[in-house]
Amino acid sequence: MATLADSFLADLDELSDNDANIVEEDDVEAGNMEEDVDGDLADIEALNYDDLDTVSKLQKTQRYNDIMQKVEDALEKGSGVQDHGMVLEDDPEYQLIVNCNVLSVDIENEIVIIHNFIRDKYRLKFPELESLVHHPIDYARVVKKIGNEMDLTLVDMEGLLPAAIRMVISVTASTTSGKPLPEEVLQKTIEACDRALALDSAKKKVLDFVETRMGYIAPNLSAIVGSAVAAKLMGTAGGLTALAKMPACNVQLLGAKKKNLAGFSTATSQFRVGFIEQTEVFQSTPPSLRMRAGRLLAAKSTLAARVDSTRGDPSGNTGRALREEIRKKIEKWQEPPPAKQPKPLPVPDSEPKKKRGGRRLRKMKERYAITDMRKLANRMQFGVPEESSLGDGLGEGYGMLGQAGNGKLRVSIGQSKLAAKVAKKFKEKRYGSSSGATSGLTSSLAFTPVQGIELSNPQSHAHQLGSGTQSTYFSENGTFSKIKRT
Description:
Prp31_C, Nop_dom, Serum Albumin, Chain A, Domain 1, mainly alpha, 4-stranded antiparallel beta sheet, Helix Hairpins, disordered C terminus
C-alpha cells in the first residue's frame, strides 16, 4: 500500500510532465506567431503608398464595373411600369438598387482614401490648403486647378469655392512655406484628383438611378422628403434597411458638411443639418423655425423608412399623411399666441366662513380692533353737518366727534390688556427691568420745566413707580427738598 509521501511524489512527477508538454506547445505557438508576424510585415513592406493603384482598387473590381454598366443601361432605358404583385426582395431591380446603395458607401470610402493620398502629396506644396478646404471633392478640384502655380492671382477658381474662401486661399498662398512639387509627384497627385472626380461622377449616376426608382422602393419616404433627398438618404445610410434602423437624430445629420467660414460671422449659417435642408418643407419654413422643422422631418422620415422597409404601405398613403401632419404642425407654430383674456372675478360667497377661534385670533382682533374715536369719525348723523379740520367742509372730517351729548369725547377709563402689556415693556426699557438692573445710559439728573434740575435714584424710582409712590428732589432757591407724591 502506497504511503502519503509516495502519492505526493507521483503527483509531482505528473506536474513536471505537464509542464514539459506546455513548454513545447508554447514554443510551437511562438514559432507560428513569428511566422505570421513576418508574413504581415512582408505584406506591409510590399505595400507601396506612393503608387495610387496600390491604395485605390475599387474602380478595377468586377463588381464596380458590372453595377455601373447596369445603372447606365437602366438610365438609358428609363423607368418602366413595375410589377407591384412581385415580392420586393425577389425583384431584380430592387436587388440592383440595394447593390447601388452598398456601392455608394464604398465609393464614399474610396474617395476618402484618395483624399488622404492627395493631401499627403500636396502638403509639400500648400500645407495650409487642407485646413481651408475640408470637402474631399472640392479639395481635389482646387488642387487640380492650382497645380504647381505659386502665384494664385493667375489661377481662376471662379465657381469652385465661395468668394470668401477664395480670398483667404489667395492671401494664405502668398505667405505659405511650401515649395513646388517634382514633376513625378505632381503627376501622381493630378491622377489621384481625376480618379476622385470620376468616382464622384459615378456616385451621382448611382444616386440618379436610385432616385428614379424611389417611388417604387420607398414611396412613403419619397412622399415626405422627395425622391432626390430620399435617394441621398438611402445612399448615405447604406440602404433602406440601414436607414430604418437609424435613429432620427442621426438621420438629421446625414449629408452634413463641416463648414469653414474663414473667420466670418456664423449668424446666418445653419449647423447640424444635412440632406434634410434640401426638402421643400424645410425651405418653405421661416428661418427661425427651421431647426425645429428639421428635427420633425428627420423623425417622420425615420417612421416612413420603417414602413417602407417592411412594405407596410406600398401606396404611399402613410407618407402623405405624415407630410400633412408636418405641414399642420409648422402652420401651428407660426400662429400668434392667443390674446390674454380678462379673468372674471370669483362668485361672491354670501355665507359666513368658518374661522377658527382661540387665543391667537382674540389677540389679533384686539390688536387690529377699531377705536371708539375712529368709529365716531366714520359715522355721520343725518341732517347734521360734520365739523372739519379746515372748516366749511374742507380738510378731514370729524364725523360725529364732538356732537354727542355735552360736546365732549368720552374716553373709556379701562385700559386694554394689550395696552397694559405695551406700557409695561416701555417702562422696563425706559427705567430698567423689574429685577433692579439698570441701563448704563440711565442718569440720576433730570431736567424739568417747573422744578429745574431733579436728582433721583433710577432704581428706587422704578421701584416706587411699581408701588404707586415717587420721591423726587428738586432745586428751589438753591436748596434741595424731598417730596413724596402718591
